[in-house]
Amino acid sequence: MKFLLQLLLIIGLGFLAQLFFPFWALVLAAFVVVMLLGYNKPFLPFLGGLLAGAILWGGMAWYQNMPNDGVLAERISTLMGFGGIGALLGITALLGGLLAALGSLSGFYFRQLFRPSAKAAK
């Protein structure tokens, strides 16, 4: 349940933040969400950030590609030497996923800094 909440919050906050701030607002949204949710292990925050960022950036790239029938994306894909529009959208989704995943992981480790350790309690 916490994982699904993380996905939805990162997608929602990341979308809203990117309406007003630069691309790295997704990293801050993922950082804050994971820091507030408080996971015990780093794998789920990383995976949730990866999926949320890929869904958000891939979906936004696809949505912005639809109105012009992919003409601009096709030209950029040709200019950059990618295989086509699908590769360009996939790379965009991968970059967004990696940004959000690293933001989530940073939020997890930042919270770990202030959590009392089991060794200190003894």
Describe this structure in words.
It contains 6 helices and no strands. The longest helix has 29 residues, at 85-113. 30% of the residues are buried. It starts with a helix and ends with a helix. The chain has one domain (2-115). By secondary structure, it is mostly helical. The protein has helices at 2-20, 25-37, 43-65, 71-80, 85-113, 118-121.
Helix fraction bin: over 70%
What is the overall shape? Answer: elongated
The fraction of residues in strands falls at: under 5%
Going by helix content, strand content and strand pairing, the class is mainly alpha
**Distance N to C terminus:** 32 Å
Overall structural domain count: 1
How many strand elements?
Answer: 0
Helix-strand string: HHHHHH
Q: What's the pLDDT, averaged over the residues?
A: 92
Features of this protein?
122 residues; mainly alpha; 6 helices; 0% strand; elongated
Summed up, what is this model?
This protein has helices spanning 2-20, 25-37, 43-65, 71-80, 85-113, 118-121. It has 122 residues and is an all-alpha fold.
Per-chain topology:
Blueprint lengths: L1 H19 L4 H13 L5 H23 L5 H10 L4 H29 L4 H4 L1
Helix pairs in contact: 1-2, 1-3, 2-5, 3-5
